[in-house]
Amino acid sequence: MSGPISRDKSDSRGPPARTPSVGDSITQRKSVSRPQSGSTQRRRSSGGSRTSAGGTETGEDHVFEQQSPVHDPDKEYDTDLEIEENEKTFDRSWEEIYTEACKRYNVVPASYFLRNMRKETLIMRHHGLGPKGAQAIAVALVTNTMITKLDISDNHIEDMGFLAIAEMLKENFYILDLALADNPIGELGVTAMGEILKTNPSLVSVSLSGCELDDSMATILGDAIEKMQKVENLDLSHNKLGDKSADAIAKGISESMSLKSLDISWNNFRSKGIATIAKGIKQAYSMTKVNLSWNGVENEGALQLADAIKSTDILKELDLTNTRLNTEAAVNLAKGLATNETLLVLKVGKNPMESAGCFGIITPLIANANSKIQKIHFDDILVNQDFDEQFAKVREVHPDLEVVTGGHEGERKKRVPKNLQHPLLKIKNFIDEKEIKLIDFFQQVDKNNSMTINKEEFRNGLTEMGIVLTDEEIATVIAVLDRDMSGTINYGDFADFVDTLEPDSSHDLVKTRIMHFIRLQDKRAQERAEAQENETDP
After folding, report:
1. Residues 6 or more apart from 474 whose CB is under 8 A from it?
2. How far apart are CA 349 and CA 328, in angstroms?
3. Under a CB-based contact definition with an 8 Å cutoff, are residues 107 and 131 in contact?
4. Lowest-pLDDT range, 158-162, 410-414, 470-474, 483-487?
5. Is the pLDDT of residue 331 over 50?
6. Overall pTM surpassing 0.70 (yes/no)
7. Which of 61, 425, 482, 453 is nearest to 270 (CA)?
8. By mean pLDDT, which of 5-9, 334-338, 364-368 is the weakest?
9. Residue 258 · residue 289 · CB < 8 Å
10. Can you tell me the distance from the alpha carbon of 251 to that of 468, in angstroms, rounded to the nearest whole number?
C-alpha cells in the first residue's frame, strides 16, 4: 500500500456542494461520524477506473484507504458541537449556490440578497429582478431554512419567475409569509401558484395584490381558495376581478377550511358580484375578516351582506369603505346588526350615505345588547345633531363603542374655507379660463382618440396642461365619473357632469351637485337594468 496521503484542509468538509436547480429535492443533512481508531475505511466497486481524494485504486477492484488517525479516546464519539460545525459548513454553501445560479441565468448577483439571505425577513421590493433574477433567487432558496417572510413585490418576474418560485415552494417549507404583489401574472403563473396554495403545508399569508388577475383566472383561484392547506390570509386586492369571478370565489370561500382573512378590495365587483360573494361569506367555516372596499356594493349587495351578517357567527371585521352605499343601502345593511353577536369592526366610510345613513346603521344596536361591536368607521361623512342624540342612546347599551366620523356638519361649515373646491371645479375653471371646448379638452387628454381615458392618461394629461391635482383628488374624480367601474372615463359622463357645475366656490353646493349627479346616474342605471329585464321576459 502507498504511504500516508496528504489531504487539503478543505477535504475534511467533503466535496463542494452541488448547485441545485429549482425543483431538486432538499438533501437531508447527515452527521458524519469520525472513523474509530485502528480501523480502515474501505469501499469496493467492480470495473472501470475511479479515483477519490484520500484514496488509491488497485486492479479491477478499487480500494479507497484512509490512514487511521492516532488513537484518541476523546475523539471516538460524535458530539453536539461537531454536528453544529457540520451544519454551519453546509450553510456556507448558500452564497455559493446563489452565485452559481446567477452565472447559469446570466444575471448579476443581488448584493442585498447575499447580505440578507440568513435573516428571517427578506424584503426585496422594486429591485428589478426580472424573470431570470427571480429564478436565481428561487434556486438559492430551495435549501434555505432561515427566511420565513419573503417579499419580492414589484420586480416584473413574469410567468417564468412565478413558476420558479412555485417550484422552490415544493421543497421549501420554512417560508410562512409570501408577497408577490405588483408582478403581472399570466395563466401559467396563476396555475403554478394555485397548486402551491393547495399543496404547500407551511404558507400562512400570501399576497397577489396588483398582479393583473382577471375573470379568466377565476376558476383557478376559486379552486385554490377552496382547497388551501394552511393559508389563512389571502390578498387579491388591486386586480381586475369582476362579477364573472364571483361564483368561483364565493364557492372557494364557502368551502375553505383555513381562510381567515380575504382582501378583494379595489377590484371590479359590482352589486350582483358582491351579492354572490356575500352568500359565500354566509357559509364560510373560518373567515373572520373581509375587505370589499372600493368595489360597487350598492343596495343589492347590501341586502345580501346584511343576510350574511345575520347568519355568521365568526365574522369579526368587514370593510365596505367607498362601495357606493347610499342612505337606503346603509339602512338595509344595518338589518344584519340587529342580531349579530360577533362583528367587532365595521368600516363604511367615504360612502354617500350622509348622516341619515349613519343614523340608520347605529340604530339597531340599541335593541341588540349582545352585539360585541367595538368600532364603526364613518370616515369623511358629516353627521348632524340627530346622529349625536341617537349615538348617545347607543352608548347607554354599548358604552365602549367608538365611532369615527368626518366631523359635525355645524363644525365643518365653520372650518371649511370658502374657496375649497371639488377637483372637477378646478378642471371646469381651467376650461373656462382658457376658453376651450369640453371636447377639445378631453381629446388633449385622450391620446388614442378612443373617447375614453384611464387613470394614467387622465393624470398625465392634466400634468401636461398644468392642472395640479393630488392623488386623492384624482381618485375622487375617477370615483364620481367611472360609474360602470370599468377603470375608464368616457366623454359622455365627463361632459354631463361638468356641464352641471358652475365656476363658484361653495363647497356645500359642490357636494349637493355631486350627490344629485350620483343619484341621477344610479336611477338611470336602474332604469336601464329594468328595461333589459323586460326585454328578456317572454
Report:
1. 423, 455, 458, 459, 462
2. 15
3. no
4. 410-414
5. yes
6. no
7. 482
8. 5-9
9. no
10. 45
**251: which residues sit within 8 A by CB, 6+ positions away?**
222, 226, 280
Question: To which H or E segment does residue 469 belong?
Answer: none
H helices of 214-270, where?
Answer: 218-227, 243-255
Sheet strand arrangement including 375-378? 121-123, 149-151, 177-179, 205-207, 233-235, 261-263, 289-291, 317-319, 345-347, 375-378, 402-405
All three cell numbers of 403, joined, read 365611532
CA atoms within 13 A on the CB side of 531: 6
Report residue 429's pLDDT band, with 50, 70 and 90 as the boundaries.
confident
At 221-245, the pLDDT tens digits run: 999 999 998 999 999 999 999 999 9
| Cα 191 to Cα 484: distance, rounded to the nearest angstrom | 30
C-alpha 329/C-alpha 339 separation (Å) is 18
- DSSP lists the bridge partners of residue 61 as 46
- Percent composition of the chain: helix, strand, coil (DSSP 3-state, to 5): 45, 10, 45
Please name every residue paired with 123 in a beta bridge, in sequence order, or none if there are none.
151
Q: Quick one: pLDDT at residue 273?
A: 96
Cell of 494: 365627463
β partners of residue 408: 383
Distance CA 508, CA 383 (A): 14
Q: 15-19, long-range: CB within 8 Å, 24+ apart, which pairs?
A: 15/53, 16/93, 16/96, 17/90, 17/93, 17/96, 17/97, 19/96, 19/97, 19/100, 19/101, 19/104, 19/139
Question: CB–CB of 351/381 below 8 Å?
Answer: yes
Rounded to whole angstroms, the Cα distance separating 306 from 336 reads 4
Q: Label residue 198 left, alpha or beta by phi (over 0 means left) and psi (-120 to 50 means alpha).
A: alpha
Residue listed under C-alpha cell 356594493: 297
The pair phi, psi for residue 347, each rounded to 5°, is -115, 115
CB 328 within 8 A of CB 360: no
Closest-CA residue to 424 (of 476, 496, 486) = 476
Alpha-carbon distance of 201 to 230, in angstroms, equals 6
With cell 431570470, the residue in question is 132
Q: Which DSSP string do the residues of 257-282 spell out, in sequence order? A: SS--EEE--SSB--HHHHHHHHHHHH
Instruction: For 388-407, give one letter per residue: b (16+ CB within 10 A) or e.
Output: eebbeebbeebeebebebbe
Closest CA to 239 of 203, 259, 263: 263
SS3 at position 82: helix
User: What distance in Å separates the CA atoms of residue 158 and residue 144, rounded to the nearest whole number?
Assistant: 23
Question: Could you report how far apart the first and last alpha carbons of the chain are, in Å?
Answer: 101
Angstrom CA distances, 171 to 199, 305, 405, 537, stand at 11, 40, 49, 56
User: If you search the block for the grid coordinates 479507497, which residue do you land on?
Assistant: 64
Contact call for residues 274 and 296 (beta carbons, < 8 A): yes
